[in-house]
Specification:
Number of helices: 8
CATH superfamily: DD-peptidase/beta-lactamase superfamily
Helix content: 25-40%
CATH architecture: 3-Layer(aba) Sandwich
Strand content: 15-25%
CATH class: Alpha Beta
Distance between the termini: 62 Å
Radius of gyration: 20 Å
Order of helices and strands: HEEHEHEHHHHEEEEEHE
Shape: globular
Strand order of the largest sheet: 7-8-9-1-2-10
Structural class: alpha+beta
Low-confidence stretches: 1-32, 284-313
Number of domains: 1
Length: about 325
């Protein structure tokens, strides 16, 4: 009898942990529960189509550079700098660990090249140099980054540096990163093309980027990848195709490949649900390339109660992206 009761209670506990909303068949990337989070937002109206731990604190890693670029674009818009402005590289900037372009103290980089280095290469030395130039010090620039985050509605984000290199006090959420992604597209459409670049030329050499979804998945036009050991593999992805727009954030992937596969699954599932569009979303590659891999649906890993749910979070109000 005692054994039967124990089994019954275990079954009740299992049912209680299940969501009444739809559980998706797409597979979660292997990740520790303290790292994984995700959100899919209809960028046309701010409606949340999917979320999993979207407001849980996470390390942004190089997604931080999205805000560094936001403030850079803002300075350009305000006429404080131009694309030909020379950015000096301090010893502090030059000493940053990879990813970097490898500057030495006293060298300079034009702002135009710096923007490309941040968006494509995710260069840490350039991020610090830009932060020091625009903010006086990197610390002061990080304070401005946090202040801008609050202004945009990123209520759970704190920046401590311009690069995203490890700092225990630097944190964000998947939802906040979605807000930032939408703000970049809305406020700086004339500069948004930087996020779609797969490479750029610097000092006669081709520098390749890290975002392997670009040019391979229909409609993907940015935005930014990131990785540190504490965060896992992060990405903010913008998709714009057939009159539909999504912002997808996945944080805490076990590998870049698994993170990307997860994003592709979310695109396939949620692009048809986005507002607008007169045609069915096509998943064919945007350019001749290897076919998009078919990712088999696998059982969700044991990561605590982490069902993948439809519209479980409040929408991301478009008013926050003003």
């Amino acid at each position: 009898m005692a054994r039967k009761l124990a089994v019954l209670f275990a079954a009740i506990a299992l049912l209680a942990g299940c969501s009444t909303t739809e559980t998706l068949t797409v597979a979660q990337p292997a990740a520790a529960p303290e790292k994984y989070s995700a959100i899919v937002v209809d960028a046309s109206n701010g409606r949340t189509l999917y979320q999993a731990y979207a407001t849980a604190p996470r390390y942004p890693a190089s997604l931080t550079k999205m805000m560094t670029l936001y403030l850079t674009f803002e300075a350009l818009q305000q006429g404080k700098v131009s694309k030909t402005t020379l950015i000096p590289v301090s010893s502090n900037a030059a000493s940053q660990p990879p990813s970097k372009l490898g500057f030495r103290r006293g060298e300079q980089i034009e702002l135009e090249a710096a923007i490309r280095a941040l968006a494509t290469k995710s260069a840490n030395d350039v991020a610090v140099a830009v932060g020091e130039y625009l903010g006086g010090t990197e610390e002061a620039f990080a304070a401005r980054m946090t202040a801008k985050a609050r202004q945009l509605g990123m209520i759970n984000t704190v920046f401590r540096n311009a690069s995203g290199l490890p700092d225990p006090q630097q944190h964000t959420t998947a939802r906040d990163m979605a807000v930032l992604g939408m703000a970049l597209r809305k406020h700086f459409p004339q500069n948004y093309y930087y996020f779609a670049a797969t490479d750029f030329n610097f000092r006669g050499k081709r520098v390749r980027g890290h975002n392997d979804l670009l040019g391979r998945v229909n409609g993907v036009d940015g935005i930014k990848t990131g990785y540190i050991r504490a965060s896992g593999f992060n990405i903010v992805t913008s998709v714009n195709a057939d009159g539909r727009k999504l912002i997808i954030v996945v944080m805490g992937g076990d590998t870049a490949r698994k993170r990307n596969a997860h994003v592709e699954e979310l695109i396939v599932r949620y692009m048809p649900r986005a507002a607008g569009g007169s045609m069915a979303y096509q998943t064919a590659p945007a350019a001749p390339a290897a076919p998009m891999p078919v990712v088999a649906a696998t059982p969700m890993p044991t990561m605590g109660a982490m069902p993948m749910q439809d519209t479980a979070a409040a929408p991301v109000p478009m008013a926050e992206v003003q």
